[in-house]
Design brief:
The protein is mainly alpha-helical. The chain has a single domain, classed as Ribonucleotide Reductase, subunit A (Orthogonal Bundle). Helix content is 62%, strand content 3%. The longest helix is centred in the middle third of the chain and has 35 residues.
Length: 351
């Protein structure tokens, strides 16, 4: 068919037009993965826009007060131990998530709007890794000690090994999501990273570091964790939408046996996180105890399971109700004036 635009003849083949109904999250062979419009999964685009609006950089957060406190005797040995363990886990965990996105997930998601968000998330993971380098450098910590804890601290090594095992098969030559087993393995990876890593492992660390902020200690690190938490909330919501979208389009993958496998992985993740909390809090501090984290991890595990259509397991109460306020935080401190304002990235060009 011939169409006229701007007085030029343009040949358009109707068969090459993108049909929204033909878009699929995985295993789509009929629609060009590069053609973003028209959107089918508007939730993916909304998550992308939210990520862009939340943009921040760690170097915008002043660390002078943290440096002063760290060099003083105002922190107990238990408090220093907790901070070091949290930094040790996050410093490499963010890299694991970023690697999984770029090396595993991106390749097999065949929808352009979902890929658009994955690109944004990959950049955010790089920012988070940058954050921990910035903190370590600012406080004058031993970089080798912090960034090598995933090799030297058993509870951190166990969590990282658990996650890396979920990526191993997907990185093998010949892996495909076009087989029944491959598609289930891909779903398992998504659940392992979005539900367990970002939805469980990260959240107990948020509680620990934001507890310092609540007591006006290590406020620079605390503010950076607030921004990371805001990012991770969007990551989690995107991951849940992606998982549920794949389930909806491919209900045959969601077998009773597969559901039991997922429940088993979540249980394993809960126990790994409880052991990590026990290592971080051997004596309790800041009103936190390891037993409280058992309740908390079980509570949020139930919430994550429910959001992907599985029954809750533990029925534990939330010992940190203030975290809901932290997650819903819509206003941030102005970095340089330390007053509450809307933090939204913006720019203007003048010629």
């Amino acid at each position: 068919m011939l169409m006229f635009e701007n007085e030029e003849k343009v040949l358009v083949n109707q068969n090459t037009r993108v049909k929204v109904s033909e878009k699929r999250l995985i295993n789509c062979s009929r629609v060009d993965v590069n053609q973003l419009m028209p959107l089918k999964y508007k939730w993916a685009w909304e998550h992308y826009l939210n990520g862009c609006a939340n943009h921040w950089m760690p170097t915008e957060v002043p660390m002078s007060k943290d440096i002063e406190i760290w060099k003083s005797n105002k922190l107990s040995q238990d408090e220093r131990h907790l901070i070091m363990r949290v930094l040790g886990f996050f410093s490499t965990a963010e890299s694991l998530v970023g690697n999984n996105i770029t090396l595993a997930i991106f390749k097999y998601v065949t929808n352009p709007e979902a890929r658009q968000y994955l690109l944004r998330q990959g950049f955010e993971e790089a920012i988070h890794t940058h954050t921990f380098h910035y903190i370590v450098e600012s406080l004058g910590l031993d970089e080798g000690e912090v960034f090598n804890m995933y090799n030297e601290i058993p509870v951190i090594q166990a969590k990282d090994a658990f996650e890396m095992s979920l990526t191993a098969d997907i990185l093998q030559d010949g892996f495909t999501t076009e087989t029944f087993e491959g598609a289930q393995k891909f779903l398992e990876n998504l659940i392992g990273y979005y539900i367990i890593m970002e939805g469980l492992f990260f959240y107990s660390g948020f509680v620990m570091m934001l507890s310092f902020l609540r007591q006006n200690k290590m406020t620079g690190i605390g503010e950076q964790f607030q921004y990371i938490l805001r990012d991770e909330t969007v990551h989690l919501n995107f991951g849940i939408d992606l998982i549920n979208g794949i389930k909806q389009e491919n209900p045959e993958f969601w077998t009773p046996i597969f559901q039991e496998r997922i429940i088993g992985l979540v249980k394993q993740g809960v126990e790994l996180e409880i052991r990590y909390a026990e290592e971080c809090l051997p004596n309790g501090l800041l009103g936190l105890t390891a037993s409280m984290f058992r309740e908390y991890v079980q509570h949020i595990a139930d919430r994550r399971l429910e959001r992907i259509g599985l029954k809750s397991l533990y029925n534990s109460k939330n010992p940190f109700p203030w975290m809901s306020e932290a997650i819903d935080l819509g206003k941030e401190k102005n970095f340089f004036e330390t007053r509450v304002t809307e933090y939204q990235s913006a720019s203007s060009l003048k010629w």
